[in-house]
Design a protein that fits this description.
This protein has helices at residues 11-19, 23-26, 30-41, 59-68, 91-95, 111-114, 194-203, 297-301, 306-326, 361-370, 406-417; strands at 6-8, 73-82, 121-130, 134-140, 145-151, 154-159, 164-169, 209-219, 222-231, 238-246, 252-259, 267-275, 293-296, 331-333, 340-344, 371-376, 379-385, 390-394, 398-402. By secondary structure, the protein is α+β, with helices and mostly antiparallel strands.
Length: 418
């Protein structure tokens, strides 16, 4: 077992090195990157058959190894378990169009609907990749399978349970043949080599993070080093991030995010099988089954159904949030793992007061059950909690959000009230 070797860096810098360029490139199509890529690119394995005896390696060298990895071909199976501690399991699914209880007229195979399911529970997935032009991700059900395929400029999604198909053209940034555009040159002063990335990550420094090589493991039959990242600050809801890195090629094989208060991992996903040989070309071939309902992406974008209308409205909502930051209404309190975002709620109002008549009694009771009432120098408000991210909404309309404890949110609101 390799002895511990540590270094200090900020959480932001570490995530830049570990996740900046790996996941989307060799795992999943652009269409799924928003939800799944980070998880798939840094996936933990559930299988552990002993700690291999590997040569000693430092934290900086291991980060260099991750950044230097250029594997673009692989196939494998892994499981992902997510436990955010939401009070009502499946609530998100019932609210997402096309989810449980939603309207399926817009196409149940649309990726944004299916990938929401990965945010809770345990799922088994299969993945294959052959460079930037071909990737496939399949979510396996009890008697069904959902597949998302990117093959040379086209994206297909197929839900065998509903017999529905989603189709889109090449994502923006690729030409008609599905080939990635030539990468732009790095700005002057930006890291250009794996060593540059590692040195900047470990020199960007601060006292917020501990990075150590915490022994070895065997993941899906492959020897791996374990990189352990932990906050040194108190008040964060994050306990640690553990990444198993393939000792031979530097591909992250294991990712476990643990909460500071212990218990089941918040995210625990893992390769149970992995092969770095080139997958067969037939893996990425797809033809809609006869009789299947096919929904084109442009049908949703033009608002021909309810989901399309919601998608058209989304850019405006995002622009509104972006404007909030640009107008100075967005403030970051603290640094590192205990950073808290402070801003005003839309309309500058808090939750309606009980008995005010502004909200049905049933809805008021529901919100009260989800949140904890708190008071302080700032006045009063409600804290909405998950195991990872908590948010304080004050009665005067201020919002404080971060991967921090309830007490840390209250302290931040009190400090802002002075």
């Amino acid at each position: 077992m390799a002895p511990n070797d540590s270094a200090e860096t900020t959480g932001e810098a570490t995530s830049t090195v570990v996740g900046r360029r790996k996941a989307a490139r060799y795992i999943v199509p652009v269409a799924v990157a928003g939800v799944a890529a980070a998880t798939i690119g840094l996936v933990p394995a559930l299988a552990d058959s002993g700690d291999p005896d590997l040569p000693k390696i430092s934290a900086q060298e291991l980060i260099e190894k991750i950044a230097a990895s250029d594997e673009e071909q692989l196939s494998g199976t892994f499981k992902i378990s997510t436990d955010l501690g939401l009070p009502l399991d499946g609530l998100a699914g019932s609210l997402v169009p096309g989810g449980r209880g939603g309207d399926k007229d817009g196409g149940a195979a649309a990726p944004q609907d299916k990938l929401m399911e990965l945010t809770s529970g345990t799922h088994t997935l299969r993945v294959a990749a052959d460079g930037p032009e071909r990737q496939k991700l399949s979510i396996l059900g009890d008697a069904s399978e959902y597949s998302l395929i990117h093959n040379q400029g086209e994206v297909w999604a197929y839900d065998s349970k509903s017999d529905e198909v989603y189709h889109a053209e090449a994502p923006e940034g690729r030409d008609g043949g599905g080939r990635a555009e030539k990468a732009p040159k790095a700005p002057e002063g930006a890291p250009a080599t794996p060593k540059d990335f590692a040195e900047q990550a470990l020199a960007a420094a601060g006292d917020t993070t501990s990075v150590t090589v915490d022994g070895t493991a065997q993941v899906a039959g492959r020897d791996a080093y374990q990189l352990l990242i932990k906050p040194k600050q108190s008040g964060s809801t994050i306990g640690s991030v553990r990444i198993a890195v393939d000792a031979e090629n530097g591909v992250p094989l294991k990712f476990t995010l643990s909460a500071a208060n212990g218990g089941k991992a918040v995210v625990d996903a893992g390769f149970t099988k992995v092969d770095f040989a080139q997958p067969a070309a037939s893996t990425f071939a797809f033809t809609p089954p006869k009789g299947a309902k096919v929904t084109e992406a442009d049908e949703l974008e033009t608002g021909k159904d309810e989901r399309g209308a919601m998608q058209k409205a989304l850019p405006g909502q995002l622009a509104e949030l972006d404007g909030l930051a640009g107008e100075g209404g967005f403030n970051v309190i603290g640094e590192g793992w205990t950073s808290i975002a402070e801003f005003r709620s839309p309309g500058g109002k808090g939750l309606p007061e009980a008995g005010s008549g502004d909200m049905p009694a049933e809805a008021q009771g529901f919100l009260d059950a989800l949140g904890d009432k708190v008071t302080g120098k700032f006045g009063s408000g409600t804290v909405f909690k998950t195991r990872l991210v908590n948010a304080l909404l004050t009665d005067d309309g201020s919002v404080y959000v971060g991967a921090v404890t309830k007490d840390a949110l209250v302290r931040a609101a009190d400090a802002a009230a002075k």
